[in-house]
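User: Run a structure prediction on this.
Assistant: Running it now.
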Amino acid sequence: MHISIFLALADYHAANRSAIRIVPHLRDSKKDDVEAASAAIYLLKDVHVQAIFGPQMSTQTDFVIDLGNRVKVPIISPATSPSLSVKENPYFIRGALPSSSQTKAISAIVKNYNWREVVIIYEDSSYGTGILPHLTDALLEISTVVSYRSVISPSANDDQILRELYKLNTMQTRVFIVHLQPFLASRIFLKAKEAGMMSRGYAWIITDVLTSLLDLVNPSVVEASMQGVLGVKPYVPRSNELDNFTKRWRKRFRQEYPDMDQVELNVYGLWAYDSITSLAEAVEKVGTTAVPKLRKPDTRENLTDLDALRTSEVGSLLIDSMQNTQLKTGLSGDFRIVDGELQPSPYQIVNIIGKGERSVGFWTEKDGISYKLKMNGKTTKSNNKQLGGIIWPGESTIVPRGWDIPTSGKKLRVGVPVKGGLEQFIKVERDSKTQAVTATGFCADVFKEVIQSLPYAVPYEFIPFPIPDSINLPDYDDLLDKITSKAISNPFVGDVTILASRAEYVDFTLPFSESGISAVVPVRDDDRKNAWIFLKPLKAELWITTGAFFIFIGFVVWVLEHRVNKEFRGPKRKQFGMIFWFSFSTLVFAHRERVTSNLTRFVLIVWVFVVLVLTSSYTASLTSMLTVQQLQPTIIDLNDLIKNGEYVGYQEGSFVKDVLKSMKFDSSKLRSYSTLEEYNEALSRSSKNGGVGAIVDELPYLRLFLNKYCRKYIMVGPTYKTAGFGFAFPKGSPLVPDFSRAVLKVVEGEFMNNIIQKWFGNETDCPEQDGMAIASDSLTLDSFKGLFLIAGVSAGSALLLFFFSFLYQNREILATHDSIGKRLSAIAKVFDEERDNCNSKSQKPEANESQAATLFAASEASPEILPDLPLQIPEIRTSDGVGASPAAEGFSTTEPGTPVHETITGTTEERLNPVQEIIQR
C-alpha cells in the first residue's frame, strides 16, 4: 500500500499541472492501537494534515475515525470490519470492501453443493467476530445451519490449536469456513494436515482477506497443507493499465525494500492507489480558492493533546466531494464510492492448487454463481450455474457430501419400536447369546435397502425401545420425543406416519408408503336369499315414475281412441279398466286391441321404445344381482357410525385416535386393538355384542387386514389424506436429503414391488377388497330422465293436437250463447258419443253395411233363400274395423287382403247382387 500511495501521487502530479501539491506524511502504527492513536494525533496537531489514509486494522481505525469527526478531517481507511459504520461517522470513507459483503458469495458456494451444516473457524478479535452475524444470516437464508463456532485466539499455541481441531474432527460436519489472518491461518492449516483433516471428504473455504493475501503465507505451507481449499476474493479485471502499473510497482518495491522477499501486488494495494487518486481529484475540485487552514481552538490553560487539535476548514469540502465519486479507469475495477462506502464488485472463486490458485468461477449479487464473467463485470447467462472443475482436499474430484460419521468409532444409532402386533411392518428381536439386535418387517427392509442405495457406506446399529406395559402401548409421539432428547442420536425407523405436528421437532424423509386413513366394515348378508330381490333393480323413485307414466300413456290412448274405436267404448267400468290394461299390457307386449288413430300410433311407438329400454335394463340388473356375489358394506359413510352410536376401533398407539376425536366421535365409543386377529374378532361381534361397527386405520394396515379377511369385510370411504410412512431424524440432520433421495430410488425400483409381495402377499388375490367407492347396483331415475321426457312430450303433444282438432270441429257449439256450463256439457256429450253417430255424412254407408250384415245373418239362418251360395261362408273382414273381430296380436290395423280373400269377397258380392235386387223389390 505504501508503494501504491507514492505511485498514485506521482501519476496524479504528472497528469495534472496544478498549483496544488499533495504531500504525503507517513507514520507507522506498529500494529498497536496506542501507536496508531498517537500517530494520528501527531499528524493532526503538528503536521496539520487535511486527510488521513489508514490505518489498516479495524480497532485502530475506530479511534482515528473519532478524531476525524472531531477535527472534520476525512479518514480514508481500508479497514474491513462491518462494525465501522459510515452512516454514523460523517468523515469516514471506507476504501475497501467490508468483510460482510463476501458472506453471500460464501453462502452461494455452500448452497451450490447442498451442504446443510458448516463450522466457522474465526479469530478471537474484533476482526474475527465482526463477520459472524452477517455470515450466519446469509447461511440461514439458504437453510444451512452453523453447527459449531470454533474461536481461535491469536496467542494460542500449537497444542491448543491441535486440540480444537481434534474436537472438530469428532463432530459430524465436514465443511469449514475459515476467517483468519494469514499468520494464524497458516498455523491452523498445518495442524489440520497433521490431524488428517486435509484429506478426502473435507471441504475448506477461506475468506477474502486470506485469499487476497495468500502470497504472505509461506509457500511451503500452501503447497503442503492447503491443497484443495476454496477461496473468495474481490475480482480485479485484467487491463493494460494494470499490467504496466504492476511492472512499475515491482520495480519500486525492490528499490524501497531491497532486503524483503518479493511479494505480489494485491487488491489492497490497488484500492490504496484508487483511494489516493479519488482524494487527489477531490482536492482538484475544491480548487486553489480554499486555502488549507486549521482553526485554532479556544485559548485555555491545561489543554490536552485532543483539546489542542485544530478544526479543518477544508475537510467538509473534501468529504462532500469524496462521498459520491467514481473513477473511470480504476486499477481495481469499478471503483465507486456511494455515501462514503465502496460498492461491491464481483467476487472471484479460486481453488488452491500447488503454490498458487486457479479460478473456478465468479459470483455477483445479481446473477449468483457462474463459471465465466463478461468484460463488463457481469456473469454470463448460461443454464449451467456450476463452478469449474475443483480439486478437493486429498486430490479428490468428488464433491464432499459435507458430513461424515464421527471418527469416535460410534455407529449410526437407529431407533426401532418394539410392538406387540402387526409384525409385518416392524419386528425387533434380540439374540439371547450375542445380544445382537435384528429388525425385520416391511419398514426395516426398506431402511436397509435405502442404506444400500446411499453413495457411501454408513455403519449402523438398531437400538430397540421396548414397551414396558404391553397392554397400553405409548403413542409414537412419545417415542419421537426420544430423538429430541438425544436418546436416539440419529434416525427412528418404523411405521411412523409423517404429520405436521411431528415435523415441528423432527425432520422426516420423503414417504415410502401410500397415505390415507379409511375404514373397514363387515359386508352384508347375501341378497340373493331375499324374497323381494326382484324389486331392487330399480330405485323407488324409478318405480313410481314408471307406474305414473303407464297410467298417463293409457289415459292418452283412451282419449285418442274413445270416439272412433269400439274397443275403448262401453260402460265406464270397462273404459276405466281399459286405461290400466292397455298401458300395462305394453310392458310385456300382451295388448290385443287395435288402434285406428295416427296420433295413437305415434304415441305407442315412442312408449314401446321406452318400455323396451326399461325392461332390458331391469333384466340386466336383476341378472347381475342373482348371478354375481355383491359385497355391500353395512355402513357406507363414517357419519353413519356417529348417527347410529356405533363403537369404532383403531390401532393402539396410533394418531388415528386424535383424528377420530376431531371428527366428533365420542371418546367413550373408541376402542383400541393391536393385532389383525383382534380387528377380526371385534368386527365379527359388532357393537351390540362388545365389538365395533368399523375399524378406522391407515391404508397400509387396512390393506394387510383385507388381504387376510377379504371376503368378510370391505373398505368404505371417504379417504382422509396423510403423508405416509417416513424415517424420522433429529431436527437439522444432514442425513435427511441423502436419505430422501435414496428413498425415491427404492420406491421407483422393482425392489418395492418385491418387498410388498413378501410381507403383504399378492393383493390381486382379493380383488373385492377395494371398496372405497361403494355405489348401489339399483338403477336410478337419473339414468332414464331423457326417455321419460321424450315419452311425455310425445304423448302431451298428441293430446294437445287432438283437443285442438276436436274443438275446431265442434266450434259451432262453442259459438252458441249458452252458459259456459251448458257449452262444456255439450262438448263432453259430443266427446262421449261415437264418432259415426255424430257424423251424418257417414250414416248411409253404415246403414248399407248394416243391411248387408243382416242379410248375411239371414242367409246363414235360411240357406234356401240363397241357393247358389255355399253352405259355409268364410270370415269376411271389413275395411273400417267397425264390428270386426280383434286381431290376433298387437295393435296393428286391418291387413291388406290376400288373393284368396279377394276371390271370396268378389264372389260373395256377385252373389249378393240378385239378393239385393229381390229385397229392393
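The CA atoms of residues 682 and 690 lie 7 Å apart.
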